[in-house]
Design brief:
The chain is mostly helical. It has eleven helices and no strands. It has one domain. The longest helix is centred in the C-terminal third of the chain and has 26 residues.
Amino acid sequence: MARHRDYIEEILAKKDRHLRRVDRHEQFRRRVIPLVKGYRYLLSHSSDVDFRNEWIKYGAIGYIACVEGYFRILFADLINSGNPYAKNITAFKDIKITIDDVLALHSRTVSLGEYVAHLLPINGIPDIDNNLSTLLGRDFLSAYRAQPASDWVQTPIGDLFPETISEVQALFQLRHLYCHELAPKALVKPRKLTSLIGSAAAFVWHTEEMIQQKILVST
């Protein structure tokens, strides 16, 4: 069956919307910072303000967009850095490629990393774990949980922050609900949503630390 989507055009359009010569974590920060400021501004309003609860939902939608964007760039950076990560993409059996795609890759209009990262699913923690475990050739979440929290705190992240992974998954689920369902009664308490967003921020930060210190892959 013929493919209806033009992946190359989608990737090129996405690249045009990214900042040039800005690394993945800075791209993440530049959207997250105003997002968090706006979220805090909404929280400063009384719960009696009729639009407050509706717009607070954007905290889940916007933050997961940032998380997804960060990890797609990370996948691309790993693959573009060469072996063993580039070789490991053969394990992604669902990725199909056309002659037009090959020509675009050959002409370097689109990099191999950008192409593969564009096609990988990121619908929650299981997808992130599977994609990174495949590229790294080892269990990502186990490595994530085992790394020290910081240079000064040697306690493993998984012991110090045991709820991080489940809270990030809960934020993904809220994003899906708020984006795809009317669900006017589906509210989450601001304090809980703030906790979920904090866990997502920590997840990205600690992942970046692990990649930079242990794997040494940058943009």
